[in-house]
Amino acid sequence: MIENNKVMEIHQSAVILLLVLASSFTAYGQPDDIKPRYQKFLNQHLGPRVSEHDCGKEISKRGITASGTANGCKDVNTFIQANKNDIKVVCGRGGTPQGRNLFKSNQPFPVVTCKLQSGQRQPNCQYRGKKSTRYIVLGCDREWPVHYEEGIING
């Protein structure tokens, strides 16, 4: 009976240790200082289902404005038509370093580029979207995308 209790104690300790380790890996996955920058990147550029006809609606709904303004129209915004995991790998094995923490995707991505046609302030920003396939260049911090630098036409 004593032997069974010892085995149970060891088993419970092992389960607790595994739970502690698992939770630390989850917390370790993304540094706290990157989270807001990564979330902003996703808000501005993740668009697996955004079409070229959705530009004005998506930019307005997501509250995307010109840098440094509360409601100024952004001149250009690009939505990457892929899931966040496919985009994230560009900052690692799926991308080629370009210097200054920039990585160019090894594979082209479908994107929708929204260009301002008229308006200076939200909600009067009018956009025209164009769909294309491009190699994307991302600014990365510790393998997390935090900035969309540019798209390079596939060709």
From TrEMBL:
SMART domains named in the record: RNAse_Pc
Signal peptide: 1-29
Domain of life per record: Eukaryota
SUPFAM superfamilies membership: RNase A-like (SSF54076)
UniProt xrefs under Gene3D superfamilies: Ribonuclease A-like domain
InterPro entries in the record: RNaseA (IPR001427), RNaseA-like_dom_sf (IPR036816), RNaseA_AS (IPR023411), RNaseA_domain (IPR023412)
Pfam families documented for this protein: RnaseA (PF00074)
Localization, UniProt: Secreted
Keyword entries, A-Z: Disulfide bond, Endonuclease, Hydrolase, Nuclease, Secreted, Signal
Keyword check for Transferase: no
Residue ranges of every copy of the Ribonuclease A-domain domain listed in the record: 34-152
Keyword Transit peptide: no
Similarity-based family: Belongs to the pancreatic ribonuclease family.
PANTHER family reported for this sequence: ANGIOGENIN-RELATED (PTHR11437:SF10), RIBONUCLEASE (PTHR11437)
Name listed for the protein in its UniProt record: Ribonuclease A-domain domain-containing protein
Organism: Cirrhinus molitorella
